[in-house]
Every structure is written in C-alpha cells, then in structure tokens.
Amino acid sequence: MAGKPKLHYLNARGRMESIRWLLAAAGVEFEEKFIETSKDLEKLRNDGSLMFQQVPMVEIDGMKLAQSRAILSYIAAKYNLYGKDIKERALIDMYIEGVADLNEMIMLLPGCPHDQKDAKITQIKEKTTNRYFTAFEKVIQSHGQDYLVGNTLSRADIQLVELLYYVEELDPSLLANFPLLKALKTRISNVPTVKRFLQPGSQRKPPLGEKAIEEARKVWKF
Amino acid sequence: MEMKESPIPTEHFHSNRPSSLPLLEKIFFGKVIHETIILNPASFLKIPEAISQIYRTLGYINPEPGVMAAKPKLYYFRGRGRMEPIRWLLAAAGVEFEEEFLETRERYEKLQKDGHLLFGQVPLVEIDGMMLTQTTAILSYLAAKEGPEGESQVLECSIDMYADGTLDLMMMIALAAFKPREEKEENIALVVGKAKTRYFPVFEKILKDHGEDFLVGNKFSWADIQLLEAVLMVEELSASVLSDFPLLKAFKTRISNIPTIKKFLQAGSQRKPPPDSHYVEAVKTVLQFSWQRQSEQTIVSRSKVFEKSKTITPSTANAD
C-alpha cells in the first residue's frame, strides 16, 4: 500500500492549495516537497516526473499526477466527495468550474501590473457579487439543504468555502448580502477535518506576500 | 448508477428530495412521479404546478414541443471555441445532437434571464433534463455516460490528465483568433512551438512506451478523441508539425478511421471550421467583449508563469 501522497510545488498557495484543502478535508495526511530554486524545478523535469513540465504534481497511489483538475478529480472520487452518480457529478463539476474561474482571477492579482490593479480588483468584486455569489446563493436557496449537491458533503462545498475565505481576504463586506453562503461557510468550517486545517500550524498556506512573489520569480525566471 | 431520464426540462440546480415529499407520496405514487419531483422541486413547492407536471409525465397533457426530445442540444456560437471538443465527443460516440447558434445579444440575454446560464456563460448543453454549463463538466458527464471510458479510477485519471493537457493547447489556439492581426504570426509560432516541444513529445512517448493503439487502457477513450482534435487543429496552423512524431501520425490515421469519427471529419458534418473574422465578430457582438477579457485571463493564467520563464537548460540554470 503506497504511503502518504506527496505534493510537489512552491511553498505557496497557487494551483496546489485547492488540492491541499481537499486532502485535508478528506482527512488524508500528506507530505510536501517545496520547489525553492530553479534547480529543483529542473531536476523534476529532467527526472521525467512532470508530464507537461509543469507543477502541481502529486505522487499518489503509484502515479505521478499532473494537471490540478485531474488531481482534484481523482482525490474527490477516491474519498467519495464527488456525488453518488454521474448526474450529481455533473452538477458538482459545473459548480467547481465556476469556483475555479473566480479563484483564478483572485490568484492572478499579485501578477497584475500596478496601474491595472485597482481596475482588476473592481472587476473581480463585481463578478463575485453579480455572477458567482448570486449563482451559488440561488443553488442553496433552491433546495434549502446543508450542502450544495446531493444533501451530502462534496468537493463542491469544500472548494466553494475555500474560495469564500479568499474573497473575505479581498473584501469581507462582499459576503454580507448572501446569508445562505455565509451559513455554508460556517457549517463547512466546522467540519472537524476542515476546522483542523483552518487552525494555525496546519499545511494551509498564507496569501502571497512580496517575498513569495520574488521567490517565484527566481524559480520561474520572469 | 444513472438516474432515469426526465422528459421534462428542469432547472440545472435541482436534484434532491424536498423535505415535504412524504405528503405527495400519499397523494400520488410511482417512481416516475418521485423522479419528476426530485428533478424539479422548485415547482413542487407550488403545488398546482407540481401537479400539472405530474400529469404531463403521465401523459395526460401533451408536453411542449421539444420536451420529449432525447437529443442533446448545444447552445453556442457558430464556430469551434469551447464547444468543439463537446461536438467531437458526441460525434465519436455516435450521439446525434441539435445546435442553436447564438447570433444576437438579445438571444443571449434571454438565456440568461431564463436562468439557464448558471454563471452567465456558454457553452450550454441541454441534456438529460439538465442545463449544463462549464466545458469540462459537460465533457466529463458525456464521457462517463456515453462510454468510451477507462475502467478504473486510475485509468480515468490518466484520461483526465491527458485531456486537460490537450484542452490547454486547443484553448490557446481558440483564443489566438481574438488577438490583434499584427500578433497573428507570433501567436501561431508560439502555439506550434508549444505543441512540438511540450505536448506532442509527451503523447509520442506514451504511445511508444506501451505500443498500443489507444492512449489509455488499450481502449478507445475521450483522451484519444481530444488528442486527435488537437493534432488536427495544430496541423491547420503548420502542415508539417507531425513530421517528427511517427507514432502520432499513425495514431491520427487510426483514430480518424473510426467510423463515427470518419463521418464527423467529412464535409457536411457538424464539425466547425477554424475561427474566421465572422466568428470573431459574432462572439464580440453577442458577448459585448466581456468574454474576451475573461477568457484571455483564463488562457493567460493557464500558462502565464510558464510562458514567461525561459526554457531551463543546463546552461541557463548555471547562469544564475
């Protein structure tokens, strides 16, 4: 039986953070190997460990998985966080793709040129309230249940709540008019595995600071 | 396990029993009715409407035209964009489908107002009583439903991984159509370069290592369809791109000869041509430029960090 999953990435949120959240929520212990220099990245590439020469890469169950979406899908399916049939999975997929789109916008903010940053932030806030939060509030309202799909905890709940924390970091007032989303956030945060992950000392990563951006610049050379 | 197909189009975010179901169970009976309610609990809350839905299910009232249609219906622009992989998958699986082409802003706004676009975006596919958006959600659902598929989670994962890679490449091409004309040469070179250095070598190696006819599990899957689609798209940009990839060339011929795919590749099929100025104009008109900004970000984000980094070779690494 293979050991713990091993995550290869920068010591930062980036595209690995959703994977960390999902593993943590599923109660799966994992190891991390941080890429700190461009030599670390080069070694992984030369070893043939990175299918498309990119990270995230996760070693799990004898595989070296790349593509964050594929990794998340595997983990979700393995730990029963992906709905009970293909129709539930389709709904979950639809929701998490929306989450991923908004998450992407927020994730890329640090890379935005300074003169465009304010406009970008405004755009993100507008999209958050008018498009994404509205859509998800409606979903919860439509069935009135504790979880987004199938009345059961799934990756959709975990990934959405992860996003809610990022939005809160951007602007805590954005969640104000979405009571059902607020309640979902509280409820999921109290799931024991998630609660543990939210505490200091867990493998959850902080927001990207200047230092982390500099490190990334050195590794990726941009 | 598949849920029974509902003949009644339903909201996309309903799939669970409302808590007041037991009351209705006493009044009506039958699996069909439960599933009708399950699939549309919002109308269940308005009892008269729920009752008329049940009557419709039981055939007492003629359903609206098109309600009983089993064919999936695709809503998108008349062009490839993000819908093309979905068309390929349906065609390869031998599933007939209908298409509605978005040509006006009004039509798009109506779809939004009717609540069919969860995030206000297309592609939209009406299938099995659901209004599904998000390309990968749709592709995953179709692949799982229509088979061809791997047999285990591990195989499915490989399929996902390969498909994601080819999708990245295809989206680069799709987006290039919206860039300024002056950048066209540069973009083509970039995409062809990426195909030749990052994507094609990977798949050539996979085929070489197992020596089988298909990418995963010695069985035709979604990954094969998408790779063929990607290969053909890059060949449109550079006819000789496969010259260094003999196994991919053979793969291309082999998959193209699968009867359903062969049919799709012939003139007159629902396969769409490469994006031209008409397509770009139609998209800009309907979406009023908002998609350009968002999808640009999406594409840029997928490869941003890695685009900007130089290829790391021993010499550049030592130059730190």
From TrEMBL, chain B:
Pfam family, one: GST_N
Entry keywords, A to Z: Transferase
GST N-terminal domain: residues covered: 70-150
GO MF entry, a single one: glutathione transferase activity
Biological-process GO terms, alphabetical: glutathione metabolic process; xenobiotic metabolic process
Keyword Transferase assigned: yes
EC number: 2.5.1.18
Catalysed reactions listed for this entry: RX + glutathione = an S-substituted glutathione + a halide anion + H(+)
Enzyme class name: transferase
Claim: Transferase is one of the keywords in the record: yes
Source superkingdom: Eukaryota
Membrane spanning residue stretches: none
Domain GST C-terminal: 152-275
Family classification: Belongs to the GST superfamily. Alpha family.
Protein name: Glutathione S-transferase
Species in which this protein is naturally found: Diceros bicornis minor
Lineage, broadest ranks: Eukaryota, Metazoa, Chordata, Craniata, Vertebrata
